Amino acid sequence: MSRIRSNNTKIEIVLSKALWAKGYRYRRNDKSVIGKPDFVFKKIKLAIFCDSEFWHGKDWDSQHKRIATNKEYWISKIQNNINRDKKANEKLTNSGWIVIRFWETEIEKNLNECVLTIIDIINFLR
Question: pTM (2 decimals)?
């Protein structure tokens, strides 16, 4: 558990470099924004999260059955993460923010599509 990072994960770094190379400037892990998004464009109120499949419960209805050890702890922990993400999304959207969430595999396999999605939304909001 001590090796698990919340900042500067591989997927964050890859997306960060791609956005920076395109000339987009942002804030990273801004504590002043609800949910502490991975990337924040404050002027246009855009929050971007990069979520790993395990910790944020991708396909949770089917995947939670795969947990073999310490089920009670892990199911509770991941379910709390899912609920926290939903609350953060709700609070941000109610405050006028646009929220984008990318799964880890989306960034790894389709980085260009993720970057284009972000660019399209930025251009729309400007």
Answer: 0.89
